[in-house]
Design a protein that fits this description.
The structure is a single chain. The protein has 123 residues and is an all-beta fold. Helices cover 0% and strands 50% of the residues. The protein has no helices and eleven strands. Strands 2, 4, 5, 6, 9, 10 and 11 form a seven-stranded mixed beta sheet that branches. Strands 1-3-8-7 form a four-stranded antiparallel beta sheet, with no helix packed on it. It is globular, with a radius of gyration of 13 Å. The protein starts with a strand and ends with a strand. The model has no long low-confidence stretch (mean pLDDT 94).
Length: 123
């Protein structure tokens, strides 16, 4: 089956940067859509960013201009570059993937999920 494994989380000071990675294994075709979601303490999980097979991206308003999503299909890897991090960005970040070409940041649209990687931003 398909597996998604995230890495790159950690603890940083506000204003710092991190790069998250998500490696997909178990399939030989590129997913139509991959995305990042996060769930902060006491909060519902929310969509952060998504990228389709053509490289088109979209972001949550809260991260626009600070986060960049990208993918390397040859390496079956999804990335999230996070700059100017804020304490409000503290959350468990999970990657997700689907062959659904609709490619919107809706949790129910995604078929495969990783376990997550923790990001903690201190003030």
């Amino acid at each position: 089956g398909v597996q998604l494994v995230e890495s790159g989380g950690g603890s940083v000071k506000a204003g710092g940067s991190l790069r998250l990675s998500c490696v997909a294994s178990g399939n030989t075709y590129s997913f139509a859509c991959m995305g990042w979601f996060r769930q902060g303490p006491g909060k519902k999980r929310e969509g952060v960013a998504r990228i389709d097979a053509a490289g088109s991206t979209s972001y949550a308003d809260s991260v626009k201009g600070r986060f960049t999503v990208s993918r390397d299909n040859a390496k079956s890897t999804l990335y999230l570059h996070m700059n100017s991090l804020k304490p409000d960005d503290t959350a468990m970040y999970s990657c997700a993937a689907t062959w659904n070409r609709r490619c919107v940041l809706v949790q129910a649209d995604f078929d495969y999920w990783g376990q997550g990687t923790q990001v903690t931003v201190s003030s």
